[in-house]
Amino acid sequence: MHHSSRGGQKGNAFLETGLIILPFLALIMAVVDFGLAIFLQSTCQHAVREGVRYAVTYQTASGLGHDASIRAVVQRNAMGFLSGDSGAGRIHIRYYDPVTFGEKTGVGSNAPGSVIEVSVEDFRWDWIMPLMRSRTPLNIIARSADRMESLPTGSFPPSR
Question: Which of 118, 29, 41 is nearest to 79 (CA)?
Fold first, then answer.
């Protein structure tokens, strides 16, 4: 008697496909997950860099102080990741004395020659991939700094 083994081959192909497709999909999802994390870090870094570039020229948006204008620029360049009040709360603007590197606060902290640092801090990103999900989300931090320019008029806007 001759038995056909076609049914067995079909079953083997189905089983092999099932064994291959799950690790393959996990690998694809891991690539997407890490790609999104890198994209988010890059986007935040670009946003704070644009905020510093805006800050050193003492530009202000209509009706906003210097720091509020910088926050608006960072939010505009963050592709929606830092939108709303919760996003604005993660944007930090600090001024430093260029000699002592001590933090300057209050009126005149954004005087020409000061060092400005714009940062995004405490931005948490949950992993998408269920197998890689840990109890701790990814914490994104991005910083950029530059020296405040001097202006020909000698005046500068209030920092707040």
Answer: 41
The torsion angles phi and psi of 32, rounded to 5 degrees, stand at -65, -45
Task: Tell which residue, 52, 49, 47, 39, has the closest CA to residue 138.
Answer: 39
At 155 the three-state DSSP class reads coil
Distance CA 75, CA 144 (A): 15
> What was the pLDDT predicted at 26?
83
Provide the 3-class DSSP secondary structure of residue 27: helix
The vertex-120 CA angle with 114 and 124, nearest 5°, equals 165
3-state helix, strand, coil in the chain (%, to 5): 40, 20, 40
pLDDT at 58: 87
Any idea what the Cα angle at residue 146 is, between residues 140 and 151, rounded to 5°? 140
Are the C-beta atoms of 120 and 150 separated by less than 8 Å? no
Q: Annotate 33-65 with DSSP letters as a single string.
A: HHHHHHHHHHHHHHHHHHHHHHHTTT---TT--
C-alpha distance from residue 146 to each of 12, 25, 111, 117 (Å): 63, 44, 13, 7
Q: Domain residue spans in the chain? A: 11-147
Report the first-to-last Cα separation within the chain, whole angstroms.
92
pTM: 0.81
